[in-house]
Amino acid sequence: MVDNEERSRHNDNVIDAAEMGGHSHVSPTSHSWLAVQMHQCTERLNRLPETARLLLCVAGIFICYLVFGIFQEKVTRGTFGENNERFTYASGLVFCQCFVGSIFAAGILYMQPEVPNKAPAHLYAICSSLYVLAMITSNKALEYIPYPVQVLLKACKPISVLLLGVLLAGKRYSAQRYACVFLIVFGVGVFMYPSKNRPPKEVGSEVLGVSLLAMSLVFDGLVGAAQEKINVYRVTSFQLMMATNGYGFSYLFTALLLSGEGFEFCAFLARYPHTILDIVGFSFVSAVGQSFVFLTITNFGPLVCSLATTLRKFTTILLSIVLFGNHLLGRQWLAVFIIFFALLLESLSKQKKAPQSSVLPDRQPANSV
Questions:
Q1: Which of 66, 225, 244, 326 is the most buried (most CB within 10 A)?
Q2: How far is CA 183 from each of CA 178, 207, 314, 338, rounded to the nearest angstrom?
């Protein structure tokens, strides 16, 4: 849902037309009152000029995930109380995100024409477990590294996608894709190049945070592979969203209960009740943001969505610097521009040549997105 925007949109993303923004021809009289209202909203949306629809979709992605980033950084990087206590309950945060995401997706599915979900349960279970691990490691990394670093490194998902595609699936990519990934790797190297006279504790913390993000990127790549297996059964995006978050909710509920972290998480919320609104807001805008991602792909294709989310991540870094006092060195700014330039080129290269399959867009958040 973390960064959650979080989350590359491929040319092989195919979103069912019955989903949000699709040109559905289902009679509204066959559904509940809520379904009728949704059908009417969809029809009004489809009657808007194309430019207006594009602005609405892009604005939705930007607003949702910029607010998502503010909530996420406020919770995970802030200090609380007189003792400057830090939030250390990444599993609890992802638990809330999965709960809200599953409820939101179930509500959307309730208002849509029923589509059979034929994907085996074990595929959903595997996909969800990888998704949860990716989200937990991504949020846990924020205990050790600044938010702009996390956003930038999470945007480097093409590295893990390419490596896993070559090593595990035997895929071949164009020379342009390899060049883009090389540029991204070079940019990361420039960004992370160690400064002189840094305290060993700070270096160790950064290494741990980057290691957690590397794990998150690997899990993200495996999630994409699992989603490809699921989408052979032509599931809709919201079916996949509900199942992934639903299984994740059940996993994390069990883990939080058995480990005792759930009680500590609740105790933290009791000590600082204002964080509840931040966590609820974080989870809600993540779910709504995914809907705008689906809507953008349905109406304008994955390239437009990929460009929008890439620019959104860059804006998130700027917003974090302005609102939370983070700062970057001159060479790090250069690295940021190199990486995002490479990401834009990589999006264009995927548009030119990509395998035809149906894959849910990246979360997040996803925010990851």
A1: 244
A2: 9, 22, 17, 7
- Is there a contact between 184 and 339 (Cβ–Cβ < 8 Å)? yes
Q: What are the backbone angles phi and psi of residue 361, rounded to the nearest 5°? A: -60, 155
Q: Structure tokens of 298?
A: 């349905």
Q: How confident is the model at residue 37 (pLDDT cuts 50, 70, 90)?
A: low
Dihedral over alpha carbons 53, 57, 63, 69 (to 10 degrees)? -170
pTM of structure: 0.85
Separation of alpha carbons 286 and 284, rounded Å: 5
> Cα–Cα distance between 166 and 177 in angstroms, integer?
12
C-alpha 289/C-alpha 70 separation (Å) is 14
Residue 12 clears pLDDT 60, i.e. is over it: no
Q: How many residues does the chain have?
A: 369
Nearest to 105 by CA among 239, 248, 285: 239
DSSP class of residue 85 equals E
Burial class (CB in 10 A: 0-12, 13-18, 19+), 257: exposed
In terms of Cβ atoms closer than 10 Å to its own Cβ (0-12, 13-18, 19+), residue 356 is: exposed
The answer to whether 61 touches 311, Cβ cutoff 8 Å, is no
Give the contacts of 23 (CB within 8 A, at least 6 positions apart).
17, 46
Q: Which residue has the tokens 């069990």?
A: 254
Predicted local distance difference test score (pLDDT) of residue 156: 93
Alpha helices in 193-329 (DSSP H): 200-231, 237-259, 261-271, 274-300, 302-324
In this predicted model, what pLDDT tens digit does every residue of 151-199 receive, in sequence order? 999 999 999 889 988 888 888 888 999 999 999 999 999 999 888 778 8
Give the residue among 222, 198, 241 at the shortest CA–CA distance from 100: 241
For residues 74-99, one letter each, b for 16 or more C-beta atoms within 10 angstroms of the residue's C-beta and e for the rest, the string is bbbbeeeeeeeeebebbbbbbbbbbb
Is residue 348 within 8 Å of 303, Cβ to Cβ? Answer: yes
How far apart CA 10 and CA 14 sit, in angstroms, is: 9
